[in-house]
Amino acid sequence: MEGLVLSGLGRRFGNVDAVLDVDLALNPGEFVSLLGPSGCGKTTTLRMIAGFIDPTSGTISLNGRILSSPTGSIPPEKRGMSMIFQSYAIWPHMTVAENVAFGLKLRKLHTDEIRKRVGEILEVVQLNALAERYPAELSGGQQQRVALARAVVVRPSVLLLDEPLSNLDANLREEMRFEIRRIHDEFKITSVYVTHDQSEAMVTSDRIAVMNQGRIEQVDEPYKLYTKPRTRFVANFIGRTNFLSGRKENNSIAFDGFSLPSEVLGIAGTAGRDVAVSVRPQSLRLCAKEPIAPGQITLRGKVVERAFLGETWDYMFASEESMRLRVVAPPSDVFEIGAEAWVQLDPSQMVPIS
Amino acid sequence: MTSLSSSPSHTGIEAVASQSHVSWLRRFQPSSLLWIVLAVILVLLIIAPVGALVTKSFTDPATGGFTIQNYIDAYGKARHVEALINTLYMGAAVVVLSVLFGVPLAWACTRTDMPFRNIIRVGIFGAFVMPPYLGGVGWILLAGPNSGWINVVWQAITGSTEPLVNVFSFPGLVLVMAINTYFTVFILVSAAFEMINSEMEDAANMLGAGPFTTAMKVTLPLVLPSILGSALLTFLISIALYGVPALISIPARFPVVVIQLTEFFSYPLRVEVAAAYSIPLLLITAGLMALQRKLLARRGFAAVSGKGGERRIVKLGKWRWVVFVYSMFVVLLSVVLPLLVLLMAAFSRSWVGGISLDNLTLQNFRYVLFEHSSSQQALITSLTTGAAAATIAILLALAIAYIVQRRLLPMSGALGFLAMSPFVIPGIVLAIGFYAVYALPPVGLYGTYLILILAFTTRFLPIAYTTGTAGMRAIHPEMEEAVRILGGGRLTAISKVVGPLLKRTLASGWLLIFVPAAQELSTAVFLVGPNTRVVSVVLLDMSEEGLLERLSALGSVLLLIIVGVMAIGVRFLGRDFMLRRT
After folding, report:
1. Average pLDDT of B195-202?
2. Considering the entire predicted model, what is its pTM?
3. Residues 6+ apart with CB under 8 A from A322
4. Which candidate from A67, A74, A107 shows the least CB-CB separation from B10?
5. What is the mean pLDDT of residues A175-183?
6. Residue B98: which pLDDT band, with cuts at 50, 70 and 90?
7. Are B130 and B180 contacting, i.e. CB atoms less than 8 angstroms apart?
């Protein structure tokens, strides 16, 4: 099978499963993020792909060849991958050019070829003027670019990135996200990116694998992950959301104050079952008068909390049935606390979750 | 830029990765082999001598069978027991004096606006550089009962025929030891003072405590663990020290353990009794060292953390000169006076001859450098064995630190523990252990350079290991992982990245061992042969023969070499490289 494939991958430390039953297949040239809170097993997964940790169950294979399995693993140096580390791991006793050339020298390329490739990649990351500097003389962002150049110049079979932006300040971080995506578009290296920052993952990735407690909860494109989260954890971790709980009846789902046909939400199964639905605050509309909106659901209630965040209003709405909903509204939609209001829900933006 | 991605790959990595199964050989880590080698070396250097010491102490020299007769011989005589009690008594007195010297100076140098703090610091540092036995010789020249300079001046002024001071006495012995050991107190307590955040004292002030109350209720309790810890360390150093008692306690008729041990080692040689006699010293040291570690480890309650907050210095006003005079007094006693008289004696025809042009000569230096073959040979022996021990110890320590820090193998912590363990073995006891296992046939290393080098390596391995661990900690494991993921094996990572990054550690660790190893006495005293005498041993012989001028000249040469080596270290490694050891 083409690409990087993790199947049934697991790693135990003592009695704890750091990673459990992870299945993930990357197409050649694809950029996938492992996203999750700290301790979710994303870094352990990445280090297993790199070969620094051996799995205790499952396998990792690249283009059909087994790299790691519980019975044995190929050491990192024989995998043809490269990695960008959280600490950058730029060698302080080598110049920028020497750092970048290191992997090429290990591959025993001709000196002219090395010089040519180093020059080219330093141009890509806009560091050609600093080639003879030592890392201590560079800013954090420049060091990050050196790490990027050093990892990309060897044309790795897989590029691994371990929270590479977490040590940068906010502005630089935003800039480097696009930089990483730009370089990926240019070289099309199969990449695995570990991060706990959802916007970083969304900017850089073709697909995102959301991890929680050692397992992958969902793998999807950023847009789909946000609009169609499959689990409560994913819905909550990617953006903010409201959870509505309902009950399955014969052909409908009953919520507090309204009900919807089962097929609208695409929920099958037996009657009497509890059902949960995620609906984003941005997809709700807060109205001062009862809106006339066919096919939409309208709930009457009042505003109980509010916060003005500059770009938006953040309202907490409580329906007459005392269902609480967070609603995001544009700055011009001003409601006082205690004001009567109606919330309009679009059933097509309500997503059943497990 | 597209050329980058379209040109063919040269890596050769695909070829390797194409083998579908992972063979045993490819998974084999050379580090397992290294672990075994290191473990064997540590067993030879540490376990074997200590084991031999313990077994010898229970062995009948005639039959080779088990016996407790050695302990009866060792402790059956009142004189021998008295020496042990004397030693403990002396150790306690040295601790008191060291604390009186070290703590105020540490406070003055770190927390006050005392004038000339840097000069005082350099002076204290000098106390560390000067080998204890040279300080002892200096004080014999100063306070010898008949012709010591202080007494000569005193008698000239007062017309008295009685000496004012006598170094060959219990107070003399304690003073000469303390002028060397207070450095330990100073360093440890300074470190604690430097970590106290002024905000802790401010908090007490805000609640209404005056400066005195604050000092007694806040500052002092915060540094108390360090004071107690350094006091214990001082105690252990002083009871194990050989040079100063060898010079002073015999004429002072104050028998101590180390001197008694040399008696067992002189004719008739009784190694077994010496071993038995030294076991209590070993046990006391190990026990107190464990206590000291516990004291310093309980820092938690003191919250002496260096993070955040500033350290403000205390403005002493007029008192700053009082504090300065006291500090200067300590520096005078410990370094300036003994060094001055040592140098003067080195350039004198006769050290009792006073200061005059007639008395001035270079003859002593000519003698020790060009005429006296023992001195020349001793200088060479000291420098080469010191250099060899420093090299072996630091390389060994770095290899162990690497394995321990990177957790390459299970049980690597045991290697680290072993590497630190010589810390609890007094030098002279280590020498008995080495003698017992390696000196006599079948190994037969007595009188060789090798046995000295091995013993020095063991003696200074803890310093090397501490330095090596600190150096390794500073290298992020990702530095190596970056090499490996780019296609380099562990050996490439070590030779291209870890090695170059450890250069500084290597150099400062080497110097930290070379300096004390080149002047080491207590480990050498039972292991030197007629042709492998080190400088310290030759110096002691000269003192027994009363050749104090020549002794001073040879001592000055040794000091010059040590200071020169340290100056090189300071030049290339920065001012405080020596102080990191604690």
Report:
1. 74
2. 0.79
3. A256
4. A107
5. 88
6. very high
7. yes
- Beta-carbon contacts of residue B453 (< 8 Å; ≥ 6 apart): B385, B388, B389, B392
pLDDT 10s digits, B483-499: 999 988 888 888 899 98
Q: Which residue of A has its CA nearest to B484?
A: A77
Contact B26 A81 (CB under 8 A): no
Residue A336 is given by DSSP the state -
| B485 interface with A at CB cutoff 8 Å | yes
Residues in A touching B496 (Cβ below 8 Å): 102
Q: What percent of chain B has pLDDT over 70?
A: 89
Span B385-411, average pLDDT: 86
How confident is residue B3, by pLDDT bands cut at 50, 70 and 90?
Answer: very low
Task: Compute the distance between CA of residue A215 and CA of residue A21 in angstroms, rounded to an integer.
Answer: 7
Cross-chain residue pair A78–B486, CB shorter than 8 Å: no
What are the structural domains of chain A? 4-236 (3.40.50.300), 242-353 (2.40.50.100)
Predicted local confidence at residue B297, as pLDDT: 67
> Residue A269 and residue A283: Cα distance in Å, rounded?
27
Length of chain A: 354
Indicate the Cα dihedral angle A292, A296, A301, A303, nearest 10°: -100
ipTM, two decimals, is 0.82
What's the mean pLDDT when you consider all of chain B?
A: 81
H, E, C per residue of B17-32: HCCCCCCHHHHCCHHH
Contact B327, B108 (CB under 8 A): yes
In chain A the first and final C-alpha atoms are separated, in Å, by 31
Classify residue B404 by burial, with Cβ atoms within 10 Å: 0-12, 13-18, 19+: buried
CB atoms near residue B217 (< 10 Å):
13
Helix (H) or strand (E) holding A32: strand A31-35
Element (H, E) at A24: strand A16-26
Residue A69: partners with Cβ closer than 8 Å, 6 or more residues away: A55, A58, A59, A60, B22
B chain contacts of residue A80, beta-carbon cutoff 8 Å? 11, 13-14, 17, 487
Domains of chain B are 27-53+362-582 (1.10.3720.10), 96-250+283-355 (1.10.3720.10)
